[in-house]
Amino acid sequence: MSFRNSMGWADPDSTEKVHSYVNTLDRANAADSIKAYKQRTYELAGATTGRRILDLGCGTGYDAMAMATLVGNGGEAVGIDRSEGMVKEARQRAEGVGLPVRFEVGDAMALPFPDNYFDGARADRVFQHLADPERALAEMIRVVRPGGSIVLTDPDYGSSMMDVADIHLGRRVKTFLTDLVANPWSGRKLKPMMQTAGLTDLTLSMTIWEIGYAGFIEQFRLPEALALMEQKGLIAGDEAAAFQTELETRAAAGLFFAANVFFIASGTKPGK
After folding, report:
1. Residue 158 — pLDDT band, cuts 50, 70, 90?
2. What are the pLDDT digits (tens) for 252-264?
3. Residue 15: predicted pLDDT
4. Which member of 55, 165, 182, 190 lies 3.0 to 4.6 Å from 6 by CB, making a disulfide possible if both were Cys?
5. For residues 12 and 59, what is the distance between their CA atoms, to the nearest angstrom?
6. 31: buried, middle or exposed (CB in 10 Å: 19+, 13-18, 0-12)?
7. Which of helix, strand or coil describes residue 73?
8. Minimal CA–CA distance to 26: which of 81, 70, 90?
9. d(C-alpha 171, C-alpha 177), whole Å
10. Which residues are CB-contacts of 78 (< 8 A; sequence separation ≥ 6)?
Protein backbone atom coordinates (compact mmCIF):
# COMPACT_ATOMS: atom_id res chain seq x y z
CA MET A 1 0.00 0.00 0.00
CA SER A 2 1.15 3.52 -0.70
CA PHE A 3 -0.43 6.94 -0.39
CA ARG A 4 1.97 8.94 -2.49
CA ASN A 5 0.33 12.30 -3.36
CA SER A 6 -3.21 10.98 -2.99
CA MET A 7 -3.14 11.37 0.78
CA GLY A 8 -3.34 15.12 0.39
CA TRP A 9 -1.90 15.80 3.85
CA ALA A 10 0.87 18.03 2.57
CA ASP A 11 2.18 19.78 -0.51
CA PRO A 12 3.53 16.93 -2.69
CA ASP A 13 6.50 19.09 -3.62
CA SER A 14 7.30 20.23 -0.08
CA THR A 15 10.81 19.33 1.05
CA GLU A 16 9.42 17.13 3.82
CA LYS A 17 7.07 15.26 1.50
CA VAL A 18 9.67 14.68 -1.21
CA HIS A 19 12.25 13.50 1.35
CA SER A 20 9.75 11.08 2.89
CA TYR A 21 8.74 9.65 -0.46
CA VAL A 22 12.35 9.33 -1.62
CA ASN A 23 13.07 7.25 1.49
CA THR A 24 10.02 5.09 0.82
CA LEU A 25 11.05 4.48 -2.79
CA ASP A 26 14.64 3.71 -1.89
CA ARG A 27 13.53 1.22 0.73
CA ALA A 28 11.19 -0.50 -1.72
CA ASN A 29 13.73 -0.57 -4.53
CA ALA A 30 16.20 -2.36 -2.25
CA ALA A 31 13.81 -5.30 -1.69
CA ASP A 32 14.66 -8.45 -3.67
CA SER A 33 11.02 -9.06 -4.61
CA ILE A 34 10.74 -5.54 -5.99
CA LYS A 35 13.98 -5.85 -7.95
CA ALA A 36 12.78 -9.10 -9.52
CA TYR A 37 9.47 -7.80 -10.80
CA LYS A 38 11.04 -4.54 -11.96
CA GLN A 39 13.47 -6.45 -14.14
CA ARG A 40 10.53 -8.30 -15.64
CA THR A 41 8.79 -5.02 -16.48
CA TYR A 42 11.91 -3.74 -18.26
CA GLU A 43 11.86 -6.85 -20.44
CA LEU A 44 8.14 -6.57 -21.15
CA ALA A 45 8.51 -2.90 -22.09
CA GLY A 46 11.14 -3.85 -24.66
CA ALA A 47 14.06 -2.07 -23.04
CA THR A 48 16.75 -3.46 -25.35
CA THR A 49 19.59 -1.93 -27.36
CA GLY A 50 18.64 1.13 -29.35
CA ARG A 51 15.08 1.48 -28.02
CA ARG A 52 13.42 4.63 -26.65
CA ILE A 53 11.39 3.80 -23.52
CA LEU A 54 9.06 5.94 -21.40
CA ASP A 55 8.89 5.59 -17.63
CA LEU A 56 5.68 7.26 -16.47
CA GLY A 57 5.78 8.37 -12.83
CA CYS A 58 9.56 8.05 -12.70
CA GLY A 59 10.07 9.12 -9.07
CA THR A 60 13.76 9.13 -8.23
CA GLY A 61 14.71 7.86 -11.68
CA TYR A 62 15.69 4.37 -10.49
CA ASP A 63 13.87 2.53 -13.28
CA ALA A 64 14.64 4.99 -16.05
CA MET A 65 18.35 4.73 -15.29
CA ALA A 66 18.15 0.95 -15.17
CA MET A 67 16.47 0.91 -18.57
CA ALA A 68 18.98 3.44 -19.93
CA THR A 69 21.68 0.91 -19.15
CA LEU A 70 19.76 -1.69 -21.18
CA VAL A 71 19.04 0.48 -24.23
CA GLY A 72 22.59 1.84 -24.44
CA ASN A 73 23.83 4.96 -26.16
CA GLY A 74 21.83 4.20 -29.29
CA GLY A 75 18.61 4.41 -27.31
CA GLU A 76 17.08 6.59 -24.64
CA ALA A 77 15.08 6.26 -21.44
CA VAL A 78 12.77 9.15 -20.61
CA GLY A 79 11.28 9.59 -17.15
CA ILE A 80 8.32 11.85 -16.47
CA ASP A 81 6.72 12.77 -13.15
CA ARG A 82 4.18 15.37 -12.02
CA SER A 83 6.34 16.30 -9.03
CA GLU A 84 9.03 18.89 -9.67
CA GLY A 85 10.76 17.76 -6.48
CA MET A 86 11.00 14.16 -7.67
CA VAL A 87 12.25 15.16 -11.11
CA LYS A 88 14.90 17.33 -9.47
CA GLU A 89 15.97 14.34 -7.37
CA ALA A 90 16.09 12.10 -10.45
CA ARG A 91 18.19 14.59 -12.39
CA GLN A 92 20.65 14.92 -9.51
CA ARG A 93 21.03 11.14 -9.30
CA ALA A 94 21.57 10.83 -13.05
CA GLU A 95 24.10 13.67 -13.25
CA GLY A 96 27.50 12.47 -14.33
CA VAL A 97 26.58 8.79 -14.74
CA GLY A 98 26.84 8.97 -18.52
CA LEU A 99 23.55 7.23 -19.27
CA PRO A 100 21.15 8.08 -22.14
CA VAL A 101 18.40 9.24 -19.80
CA ARG A 102 16.44 12.44 -19.25
CA PHE A 103 13.69 13.52 -16.89
CA GLU A 104 10.79 15.89 -17.41
CA VAL A 105 7.93 17.30 -15.36
CA GLY A 106 4.62 16.40 -16.95
CA ASP A 107 1.04 15.25 -16.61
CA ALA A 108 0.05 11.64 -17.26
CA MET A 109 -3.23 12.92 -18.70
CA ALA A 110 -1.47 15.02 -21.36
CA LEU A 111 1.98 13.65 -22.12
CA PRO A 112 4.32 16.20 -23.76
CA PHE A 113 5.43 13.86 -26.55
CA PRO A 114 4.36 13.37 -30.18
CA ASP A 115 2.42 10.35 -31.40
CA ASN A 116 4.36 7.09 -31.85
CA TYR A 117 7.48 8.56 -30.19
CA PHE A 118 8.44 5.62 -27.95
CA ASP A 119 9.18 1.96 -28.61
CA GLY A 120 7.65 1.02 -25.27
CA ALA A 121 6.33 2.48 -22.03
CA ARG A 122 5.85 1.42 -18.44
CA ALA A 123 4.14 2.81 -15.33
CA ASP A 124 5.03 1.26 -11.99
CA ARG A 125 2.72 1.86 -8.99
CA VAL A 126 1.30 4.96 -10.67
CA PHE A 127 -2.24 4.19 -11.81
CA GLN A 128 -3.41 3.62 -8.23
CA HIS A 129 -3.03 7.38 -7.73
CA LEU A 130 -4.90 8.50 -10.84
CA ALA A 131 -8.50 9.67 -10.87
CA ASP A 132 -8.75 8.89 -14.61
CA PRO A 133 -6.50 5.89 -15.36
CA GLU A 134 -8.21 5.21 -18.69
CA ARG A 135 -7.14 8.62 -19.97
CA ALA A 136 -3.56 8.06 -18.82
CA LEU A 137 -3.48 4.71 -20.60
CA ALA A 138 -4.83 6.33 -23.76
CA GLU A 139 -1.96 8.82 -23.59
CA MET A 140 0.58 6.03 -23.17
CA ILE A 141 -0.89 4.24 -26.18
CA ARG A 142 -0.77 7.45 -28.21
CA VAL A 143 2.94 8.07 -27.63
CA VAL A 144 4.00 4.44 -28.24
CA ARG A 145 4.54 3.28 -31.82
CA PRO A 146 2.37 0.52 -33.31
CA GLY A 147 3.84 -2.81 -32.25
CA GLY A 148 5.30 -1.27 -29.11
CA SER A 149 4.70 -2.58 -25.59
CA ILE A 150 2.95 -0.99 -22.64
CA VAL A 151 3.45 -2.34 -19.11
CA LEU A 152 1.48 -1.39 -16.01
CA THR A 153 2.21 -2.52 -12.46
CA ASP A 154 0.05 -1.75 -9.45
CA PRO A 155 -0.91 -3.19 -6.09
CA ASP A 156 -4.48 -4.13 -5.29
CA TYR A 157 -5.44 -3.04 -1.81
CA GLY A 158 -8.28 -5.52 -1.64
CA SER A 159 -5.54 -8.17 -1.59
CA SER A 160 -3.21 -6.50 0.93
CA MET A 161 -2.34 -8.33 4.14
CA MET A 162 -1.49 -7.29 7.69
CA ASP A 163 -1.15 -9.74 10.57
CA VAL A 164 -2.68 -8.37 13.79
CA ALA A 165 -4.42 -10.03 16.72
CA ASP A 166 -7.65 -8.05 16.45
CA ILE A 167 -8.87 -8.91 12.96
CA HIS A 168 -11.78 -6.48 13.11
CA LEU A 169 -9.60 -3.56 14.16
CA GLY A 170 -7.05 -4.46 11.51
CA ARG A 171 -9.81 -4.48 8.90
CA ARG A 172 -10.97 -1.01 9.96
CA VAL A 173 -7.46 0.39 9.74
CA LYS A 174 -6.87 -1.25 6.38
CA THR A 175 -10.18 0.08 5.02
CA PHE A 176 -9.33 3.60 6.13
CA LEU A 177 -5.87 3.47 4.56
CA THR A 178 -7.31 1.99 1.37
CA ASP A 179 -9.97 4.67 1.05
CA LEU A 180 -7.27 7.36 0.96
CA VAL A 181 -5.99 5.97 -2.34
CA ALA A 182 -7.55 7.38 -5.51
CA ASN A 183 -7.80 4.03 -7.31
CA PRO A 184 -7.32 1.35 -4.61
CA TRP A 185 -8.37 -1.66 -6.72
CA SER A 186 -6.11 -0.69 -9.59
CA GLY A 187 -4.25 -4.00 -9.75
CA ARG A 188 -7.24 -6.12 -10.72
CA LYS A 189 -8.40 -3.52 -13.25
CA LEU A 190 -5.20 -3.29 -15.29
CA LYS A 191 -5.70 -6.15 -17.73
CA PRO A 192 -9.42 -5.49 -18.42
CA MET A 193 -8.63 -1.80 -18.93
CA MET A 194 -5.87 -2.62 -21.41
CA GLN A 195 -8.16 -5.02 -23.24
CA THR A 196 -10.90 -2.40 -23.48
CA ALA A 197 -8.33 0.08 -24.83
CA GLY A 198 -7.60 -2.28 -27.71
CA LEU A 199 -4.19 -3.60 -26.74
CA THR A 200 -3.30 -7.11 -27.91
CA ASP A 201 -0.99 -9.92 -26.72
CA LEU A 202 -2.08 -9.28 -23.15
CA THR A 203 -0.22 -10.89 -20.26
CA LEU A 204 -0.84 -10.83 -16.51
CA SER A 205 1.28 -11.97 -13.60
CA MET A 206 1.39 -11.36 -9.86
CA THR A 207 4.04 -10.99 -7.22
CA ILE A 208 4.03 -10.38 -3.47
CA TRP A 209 5.99 -7.66 -1.71
CA GLU A 210 6.53 -8.28 1.98
CA ILE A 211 6.85 -4.89 3.71
CA GLY A 212 9.15 -4.56 6.70
CA TYR A 213 8.06 -2.73 9.83
CA ALA A 214 10.10 0.44 9.27
CA GLY A 215 8.92 0.69 5.69
CA PHE A 216 5.31 0.11 6.73
CA ILE A 217 5.37 2.90 9.31
CA GLU A 218 7.13 5.30 6.95
CA GLN A 219 5.08 4.45 3.89
CA PHE A 220 1.72 4.76 5.61
CA ARG A 221 2.65 7.53 8.04
CA LEU A 222 0.79 5.33 10.49
CA PRO A 223 0.76 7.60 13.58
CA GLU A 224 -0.80 10.37 11.47
CA ALA A 225 -3.27 7.95 9.89
CA LEU A 226 -4.42 6.64 13.26
CA ALA A 227 -4.69 10.17 14.62
CA LEU A 228 -6.86 11.11 11.67
CA MET A 229 -9.05 8.04 12.25
CA GLU A 230 -9.48 9.10 15.86
CA GLN A 231 -10.43 12.65 14.81
CA LYS A 232 -13.08 11.22 12.50
CA GLY A 233 -14.45 8.96 15.23
CA LEU A 234 -13.44 5.80 13.40
CA ILE A 235 -11.21 4.49 16.18
CA ALA A 236 -10.91 5.12 19.92
CA GLY A 237 -7.72 6.53 21.40
CA ASP A 238 -7.01 3.37 23.39
CA GLU A 239 -7.52 1.24 20.26
CA ALA A 240 -5.04 3.35 18.29
CA ALA A 241 -2.45 3.08 21.08
CA ALA A 242 -2.95 -0.67 21.39
CA PHE A 243 -2.65 -1.11 17.64
CA GLN A 244 0.66 0.76 17.50
CA THR A 245 1.97 -1.08 20.54
CA GLU A 246 1.12 -4.45 19.03
CA LEU A 247 2.99 -3.64 15.82
CA GLU A 248 6.01 -2.46 17.79
CA THR A 249 5.96 -5.63 19.89
CA ARG A 250 5.69 -7.84 16.82
CA ALA A 251 8.53 -6.00 15.13
CA ALA A 252 10.79 -6.33 18.19
CA ALA A 253 10.13 -10.07 18.23
CA GLY A 254 10.69 -10.42 14.49
CA LEU A 255 7.03 -11.33 13.96
CA PHE A 256 5.75 -8.31 12.05
CA PHE A 257 4.12 -9.18 8.74
CA ALA A 258 2.46 -7.05 6.09
CA ALA A 259 2.39 -7.60 2.34
CA ASN A 260 0.88 -6.37 -0.91
CA VAL A 261 -0.07 -8.29 -4.02
CA PHE A 262 1.23 -6.62 -7.17
CA PHE A 263 -0.29 -7.17 -10.62
CA ILE A 264 1.87 -6.80 -13.74
CA ALA A 265 -0.06 -6.39 -16.99
CA SER A 266 1.35 -5.87 -20.46
CA GLY A 267 -0.01 -5.41 -23.94
CA THR A 268 0.96 -4.45 -27.48
CA LYS A 269 -0.27 -1.47 -29.48
CA PRO A 270 -1.90 -2.83 -32.65
CA GLY A 271 -0.50 -2.04 -36.07
CA LYS A 272 2.88 -2.09 -37.73
Report:
1. confident
2. 999 999 998 999 9
3. 55
4. 182
5. 12
6. middle
7. coil
8. 90
9. 10
10. 52, 53, 54, 55, 64, 101, 102, 103, 104, 113, 118
Number of other CB atoms surrounding residue 240 within 10 Å: 20
Nearest of 114, 209, 222 to residue 159 by alpha carbon: 209
Give pLDDT, residue 8.
Answer: 38
pLDDT of the residue at 105:
96
**For residues 22 and 270, which has the higher predicted lDDT (pLDDT)?**
270
**Cα(28)–Cα(214) distance, integer angstroms:** 11
| Structural contact between residues 149 and 51, judged by C-beta atoms closer than 8 angstroms | no
**R_g of the chain, CA atoms, integer Å:** 19
Residue-level pLDDT at 14: 55
Q: Please name the residues in contact with 107: beta carbons below 8 A apart, sequence gap of 6 or more.
A: 82
Residue 173 CB contacts under 8 Å (≥ 6 apart), including other chains: 162, 225, 226, 229, 235, 243
Across 198-205, average pLDDT:
97
User: Under a CB-based contact definition with an 8 Å cutoff, are residues 100 and 119 in contact?
Assistant: no
Element (H, E) at 214: helix 213-220
- pTM of the predicted structure, to 2 decimals: 0.88
Beta-carbon contacts of 101 under 8 Å, excluding residues fewer than 6 positions away, are: 61, 64, 65, 67, 68, 76, 77, 78, 79, 94
